[in-house]
Amino acid sequence: MKLIHLSDLHIGKKVNELSMIDEQRFILDQILDGIRTEKPDAVLISGDVYDKTTPPLEAVMLLDEFLNKLEIKGLSVFLISGNHDSPERLSFGAERMKKSGLYIKSIFDGDLTPVTLEDEFGKVNIYSVPFIRVSDVNNAYGTDLRSISDAFSYVVDKMGLDTKERNVLLSHQFVSGASFSESETAVGGIESIDKDVYAPFDYTALGHIHKPQNIGSKRLRYCGTPLKYNISEVGYKKTYTVVELNEKKDGDTLCDITIREVPLVPKHEMVKIEGYFDELMSMKADDNGIVTNNFVYAVLRDNNYVKDAAMLLRKRFPNLLNISYEEKTKSTDFSFELTIEDTKKQTPEMIFTDFYKKIHDGNEPDQSGKEILMNAIKEVFGEDAL
Q1: Which of 1, 79, 224, 264 could form a disulfide with 119 if both were Cys (CB 3.0 to 4.6 A apart)?
Q2: What is the phi-psi region of residue 308: left when phi exceeds 0, alpha when psi lies from -120 to 50, beta otherwise?
Q3: Pick from 283, 327, 267: which is nearest to 302 by CA?
Q4: Pairwise CA distance, residues 347 & 311, whole Å
């Protein structure tokens, strides 16, 4: 049986206040093309479908468009909620959608009944557990569990898995040993689930972590986001995962599986450029593979702040996301002695300028820096201090 594993679509996300909706539509269309080519039996979407619990209208419309296009003959679609989703909103119409092969599990109510698919090798049981906290498990079963690992282990035990058949799980949790990047916001708590809790499943389609990776083995996998959402992901190759479940032979508790990653090519690449302001402004379109419409994080090496740097760079790079300045490692081993008598001989401007030159290798503040200083002096000491 062939499965396609997706997660963390984060539809409606903004990166540095720039909407990603057009990028997401482009990449979802690319995934749809891949699904039509691969002809899988099922698509697994492991949570964080939306970026916010109250997604904007354009995000709701894009998800609706994507799910409608997934109504392909013979294809089943499984979707769970993540910590970014509203379980109640995502569950709207879920019962009716089952008739078209779309199975949404967004509210944890203790019901662990799987959906069973079949191929030439027999049954495959698909279990869906949305993002849960310990309190969700305790409320559903009247237990008094204390850790998320114990709570999830309890849930797995309640499933009563038949290991003679193949079993697949959708889960949106933080599993111990996972490596995550700065793009995971609101991770949902630092407590993790021991990877051994997932050991009974032939394959677990994980969501929650944006970096594609296996945890311990290829049977327990985060497929990652289909797009880059943070500077920490620059250089990552985004993919979706294709999983094939082979026959489970007599006496085996797990079947043989194969997984492969299918590359995704974004509409606009996300890159980081570094250099002095003038160098970046004169950068040619093909320098270091950079093109003008990339999503750009710019790191300036200038010692002083460049006035209107973001506005000017955005003329060169219209999809500029952010600028920052390279941190300079400077020696703090210098003396700066100032007595009361000295202060009587110098104006506040002279005192600050001398200090500034000490920590900036003898360079004085630029004109914009001087203007800021003058305004601060007027605010604190009054006009007569100048």
Answers
A1: 1
A2: left
A3: 327
A4: 34
Give CA angle at 20 (19, 23), nearest 5°.
145
* Distance in angstroms (rounded) separating the CA atoms of residues 31 and 225: 12
Domains and CATH numbers, the chain: 2-263 (3.60.21.10), 270-325 (no CATH), 340-385 (no CATH)
Determine the 3-state secondary structure of 180 from DSSP. Answer: coil
Closest CA to 246 of 254, 238, 237, 236: 254
Do 38 and 258 form a contact (C-beta atoms < 8 A)? Answer: no
Model confidence band, residue 326 (pLDDT cutoffs 50, 70, 90): confident
Give the number of other CB atoms < 10 A from CB of residue 155.
23
Structural contact between residues 145 and 137, judged by C-beta atoms closer than 8 angstroms: yes
- In angstroms, what CA-CA distances link 118 with 41, 100, 126, 159, 247? 9, 17, 11, 19, 12
Q: Comparing C-alpha atoms, which of 169, 176, 177 is closest to residue 148? A: 176
Residues 6+ apart with CB under 8 A from 381: 348
Q: What angle do CA 63, 155, 111 make, to 5 degrees?
A: 60
Alpha-helical segments (H) within 74-133: 87-90, 94-97
Token digits for 199?
């050991």
Amino acid in position 267: K
**Distance (Å, rounded) from C-alpha 49 to C-alpha 85?**
7
Q: Strand 166-172 to strand 122-129: parallel, antiparallel, or no bridges (unpaired)? A: parallel
Residue for token pair 């749809």: 32
Query: Six-digit token pair at 347?
Result: 């104006």
Q: At what angle do helices 367-381 and 348-359 cross, to 10 degrees?
A: 140
Give the E-state strand segments of the chain in sequence order.
Answer: 2-6, 14-15, 18-19, 42-46, 76-80, 102-105, 115-119, 122-129, 166-172, 203-207, 213-215, 217-222, 239-245, 257-263, 270-275, 295-300, 320-325
Listing DSSP states for 327-375 in one string gives: PP-----------HHHHHHS-HHHHHHHHHHHHTTTPPP-HHHHHHHHH
Q: Three-class SS of residue 58?
A: helix
Over the stretch 113-154, which tens digit does the pLDDT of each residue have? Answer: 999 999 999 999 999 999 999 999 999 999 999 999 999 999
